[in-house]
Every structure is written in C-alpha cells, then in structure tokens.
C-alpha cells in the first residue's frame, strides 16, 4: 500500500511539474482572470459548469468568489450552474442531460458575461453545448480541460489544458489553477497590491 501511495503522489507531482513549467497555461490563466475581472467591473458575472468532480470544482470555485479565498473583500458575482436540482432534473427530464448547462446559459447569460466550462476529457456534451451558445450570445468563454483539450478547445476563447490523460491528475491541477485564477481576478479587480500586508507594501 505504501508503494501505491508513493506511485500516485509521484504521478501527481509529475503532472503538476509539467503545469509549473508550461508558460502557455500560465498565460491562459492570467488572461482568463483579466477578462473575468473586467466583466465583473462592468456588472457582469462568471458562470461555471462541469460534471462529477468538475461539478464539485464549479461549486468550490464559485464559493471562493462569493465568500472569499484568503483575504476579506467584497463578494464577486459568480454562479455555479451545477447546484439547482430542480432546474437540472427538469431540463434533464424535459429535454436531455446534454442541455442542462446550455439552457441555464440561455436563461441567465448576458453579453459580456464569462462562462468557465470544466471537463477533464474536454468532450462533455453539456459543456460543449453551453460553450457554443455562449459564443452566440457574446459571452466570453474559458475551458479548463485535459486530454489535449478535446472538442472544447475548438470552442473556448481561452484554454487551460492540463498535459495529462489521467482524470485524477487533471482534476488536481484544475483545482490548483482555479484557486490561482480567483487570485488573479482579485488582483485585477482590486489592484496589484490587493492582499498584501502593510509591511509587504513597504518592501
């Protein structure tokens, strides 16, 4: 069992090391943060969607925006499209599970909003449909994926593609980069010195 633990941790670290050294990923996260902050400053919002573990990530990330990440600050406008069981089951029953996020984007999305779709495969049909509609509505689109980006990479304005095809390792990297994305949004929204202690400002 100890060998299993070491093997899995080593595999996780290997993926995270690739992410650490991938400038394209860093650039994409910064650009996504900048666009999201600008949208929020204009009164727009962030919408987030995903399935399974990526649904949990959607809710986790939105909680960081609406509550806080590390520093007290005003709430930031964000909504997870994964949380309302009545909406999800109604759309799934009346239409198809493939439409559960697309229909919510139609109802809630406004031009200038941001949609972040999370999928380890990059091929989740409901995320693909949501991205397609978002682009038609003039909504900025961001995709967090793995597996070389899948279909979603062709649709999103900004792609954060984890260099792995192992679901758990993609999810681990997604979560780290989702936290960083929130931090980037905070810096762009509140200013470069946001979150720094007084003694840090003097250095």
TrEMBL record:
Residues involved in substrate binding: 51-53, 64, 93-94, 119-121, 124, 171
InterPro entries: GmhA/DiaA, Phosphoheptose_Isoase, SIS_dom, SIS_dom_sf, SIS_GmhA/DiaA_subfam
Localization terms from the record: Cytoplasm
UniProt GO cellular component terms: cytoplasm
Predominant localisation class: cytoplasm
Lineage: superkingdom: Bacteria
Cofactor names: Zn(2+)
Binding site for Zn(2+): 60, 64, 171, 179
Enzyme class, first EC level, given as a word: isomerase
Cofactor note: Binds 1 zinc ion per subunit.
Catalytic activity, as annotated: 2 D-sedoheptulose 7-phosphate = D-glycero-alpha-D-manno-heptose 7-phosphate + D-glycero-beta-D-manno-heptose 7-phosphate
Extra remark: The reaction produces a racemic mixture of D-glycero-alpha-D-manno-heptose 7-phosphate and D-glycero-beta-D-manno-heptose 7-phosphate.
Biological role stated in the UniProt entry: Catalyzes the isomerization of sedoheptulose 7-phosphate in D-glycero-D-manno-heptose 7-phosphate.
The protein's name: Phosphoheptose isomerase
Phylogenetic placement of the source organism: Bacteria, Pseudomonadati, Acidobacteriota, Terriglobia, Terriglobales
